[in-house]
From TrEMBL:
InterPro entries: NADH_Q_OxRdtase_chainM/4, NADH_UbQ_OxRdtase, ND/Mrp_TM. PANTHER family: NADH-UBIQUINONE OXIDOREDUCTASE CHAIN 4, PROTON-TRANSLOCATING NADH-QUINONE OXIDOREDUCTASE, CHAIN M. Its main location: membrane. This is NADH-quinone oxidoreductase subunit M. Signal peptide: none annotated. The keyword Nucleotide-binding does not apply. It is found in: Endomembrane system; Membrane. Its EC number is 1.6.5.-. NCBIfam families: NDH_I_M (TIGR01972). The keyword Transmembrane applies.
C-alpha cells in the first residue's frame, strides 16, 4: 500500500481508533490524556483531507481497498472529505476552548471522535451501502450528545430528530436497495459496478423513476427539505455547539451528496417529475424558511433556520441537471458547512458573555469585543455569499444554471440573497452596534481570546482561500461531473 493510500485511509481509521483509545483512557487516566488522544484523531482527519487534496491535484482520483470495501475520492467527494476534516478539527478546538465547562468531557470527546470517523468514511466510501452505514453510525453520537449535553428542551428535540431521520433513513435504504436490484437483479452496491450496470442494462423508466422518488423523499427528510424541515432548527438550537457544527456543517450534506454522487448519475434520466417537485419545495426552503429566519430574535435559532434555508439553493442547483448547477451545489455545501460552523461558535460566545442570545436584548457589543465583532461580520458576509468567500462561487453558479432554465425560478432563488442579507446584517446591528444594553454593559470588556479565535480563524481562512482560489475545488468538480451523462443532457 502506498503512502498516499495510507494517508487517505488514516482519515477514517484514526478517529475511530482514537475513539476506542480515548474511551479506554477515560477509565484509567485523567482528561489530559483523553484530550491528547482526541487531538491526534482530529488532526489526523484534517491532515488526511488536506494531503488527499494535494494528491488529487497531482494524480487525480484515488481508489484503495479497505476493510470497508472500495474507498476513494473523486471531485465531488474530495470537497466533502476536505470539509469534514476542517470542520471536525475546528469543532475539537472549540470544545477545548469553550468558555462553558463541559461535564464529562472525556465521554463528550469520544462521541465526537466516533462521529468524525463516520463523517470521513461517509465521503470516502465507494460503496453506497457503506456510505449509508457510515451516515447512520455518525448519527448515533448526535442523539446521545443531545440527550446528555443538550439544552433545556433537548429531549423533545432529540425525539423529533430521531423520528424524522429514522423514517428518512429507512426510505433512503429502500431506495439504495432498489437501485441495486433494478440494475443488476443482485444486491451489489459498488458504485462503479452500478454505473456500468445502468449503462448496459435496459432499466425501465417507471422503476427508475419510482426508485428516485422514494430516495428523494428520504433525502428530503435527512436534509430538511420543506415540509420535512421542522426537526432541524430545534435540533441545532438544543444540541451542544460542537455537535451542531458537525451535524449542520457536515452530516446534513449527506443527502445532497447522495443525490449528486449516486441518484442523478444513475437515475437522473427518469427524474423529471421528481425534480420539478424538488424545485418547488426548494424554493419554499429559500423563501418561506428564509422569512422564518428573519423573524427569529434568538441568534442561535436564527442560525439554525438559516441552515435549513440554504439547503434550498443546493437542491435547486442539483435540480438544474447540469454540471454548473451540481458543481455550484457542492460549492455551497462546502462554503455553508464552514460558515455555519463558525456561526454556532459565535452563538455560544454571545450566550456565555451576555447570558442570552436574544438579539433585541443586546446592542453596542462592538466596544467590548472589537476583534470578535470583526470576525463575526466577516463570517456573516461569507454566509450571505459576498465575493471573496467560498459561498459566493457556489451561489453564482447555481443562479447561472437556473437562469438558463427560466428567469422566474432564477429570480425567486436570487431573493434568497436579499433575505439572508436582511437577517445577517440585522444580527450584526442588533448585537454589536447601537446603544449598549444593560447585559452588554454588565459584561464589560470580554473580547474573544486567542484560543477561542483559533477554530474561527481556521474556518474563515478556508472560506477565504477557496473564495480567492475556487479552482482548487471547481476543477476537480468539473472533471468528475463533466464525465457523467446525466449532467450533460441539458448543458449542451
Amino acid at each position: 500500500m502506498e503512502i498516499s493510500e495510507i494517508t487517505f485511509l488514516s482519515g477514517v481509521y484514526a478517529p475511530l481508533i482514537c475513539a476506542v483509545l480515548a474511551f479506554a483512557f477515560s477509565k484509567i487516566t485523567g482528561e489530559l490524556a483523553v484530550k491528547s488522544v482526541a487531538f491526534f484523531g482530529f488532526a489526523a482527519a484534517l491532515a488526511s483531507s488536506v494531503l488527499t487534496a494535494f494528491f488529487y491535484a497531482e494524480n487525480g482520483a484515488l481508489e484503495v481497498s479497505s476493510a470497508f470495501g472500495l474507498m476513494g475520492v473523486n471531485g465531488v467527494s474530495l470537497a466533502m472529505y476536505l470539509l469534514a476534516g476542517i470542520v471536525g478539527f475546528a469543532a475539537f478546538l472549540w470544545t477545548i476552548a469553550s468558555p462553558v465547562k463541559i461535564k464529562g468531557i472525556s465521554t463528550y470527546l469520544v462521541c465526537m471522535l466516533f462521529m468524525q470517523g463516520g463523517l470521513m468514511g461517509m465521503f470516502a466510501s465507494q460503496n453506497i451501502l457503506w456510505m449509508y452505514a457510515f451516515h447512520e453510525f455518525a448519527l448515533v453520537p448526535t442523539f446521545i450528545a443531545m440527550c446528555v449535553w443538550g439544552g433545556e428542551n433537548r429531549k423533545p428535540a432529540a425525539m423529533e430528530m430521531a423520528i424524522y431521520l429514522t423514517l428518512g433513513a429507512l426510505l433512503v435504504l429502500l431506495g439504495i436497495i432498489s437501485i441495486s436490484f433494478i440494475s443488476t437483479k443482485t444486491l451489489t452496491f459498488n458504485l462503479r459496478e452500478l454505473t456500468d450496470a445502468f449503462a448496459s442494462a435496459n432499466v425501465g423508466a417507471k422503476s427508475a423513476g419510482t426508485a428516485f422518488a422514494v430516495l428523494s423523499v428520504g433525502i428530503g427528510a435527512l436534509v430538511s427539505l420543506f415540509p420535512l424541515h421542522s426537526w432541524a432548527p430545534k435540533t441545532y438550537n438544543e444540541a451542544p455547539t460542537a455537535f451542531s457544527m458537525l451535524h449542520a456543517g457536515v452530516l446534513k450534506k449527506f443527502g445532497l451528496y447522495l443525490l449528486i454522487q449516486v441518484a442523478v448519475p444513475l437515475l437522473g434520466a427518469n427524474a423529471g417529475l421528481s425534480m420539478s417537485v424538488i424545485t418547488v419545495l426548494a424554493l419554499l426552503n429559500v423563501i418561506l424558511i428564509g422569512l422564518c429566519t428573519m423573524a427569529q430574535n434568538d441568534f442561535k435559532m436564527m442560525v439554525s433556520y438559516s441552515s435549513v434555508s440554504h439547503m434550498g439553493l443546493c437542491f435547486l442547483g442539483i435540480a438544474s441537471m447540469g454540471v454548473l448547477g451540481a458543481g455550484g451545489a457542492v460549492m455551497i455545501m462546502f462554503g455553508h458547512g464552514l460558515s455555519v460552523a463558525a456561526l454556532f461558535i459565535f452563538a455560544e460566545i454571545i450566550k456565555s458573555r451576555f447570558s442570552t442570545c436574544d438579539m433585541p436584548s443586546l446592542g453596542g457589543a462592538y466596544k467590548n469585543m472589537p476583534v470578535c465583532a470583526g470576525l463575526f461580520v466577516a463570517v456573516i458576509l461569507a454566509n450571505i455569499g459576498l465575493p471573496g468567500f467560498a459561498n459566493f462561487w457556489g451561489e453564482i453558479s447555481v443562479f447561472a444554471a437556473l437562469w438558463s432554465k427560466g428567469a422566474v425560478v432564477c429570480a425567486l432563488a436570487v431573493s434568497g440573497i436579499i433575505i439572508s442579507a436582511v437577517y445577517g446584517l440585522r444580527a450584526v446591528a442588533n448585537i454589536f452596534f447601537g446603544a449598549q444594553s444593560c447585559a452588554v454593559k454588565k459584561a464589560g470588556n470580554c473580547d474573544i481570546s486567542w484560543k477561542e479565535r483559533a477554530p474561527v480563524l481556521i474556518l474563515l481562512l478556508a472560506l477565504i482561500l477557496i473564495g480567492f482560489a475556487p479552482k482548487l475545488i471547481t476543477v476537480p468538480l468539473d472533471e468528475t461531473l463533466g464525465g457523467v451523462p446525466a449532467y450533460n443532457l441539458t448543458d449542451k
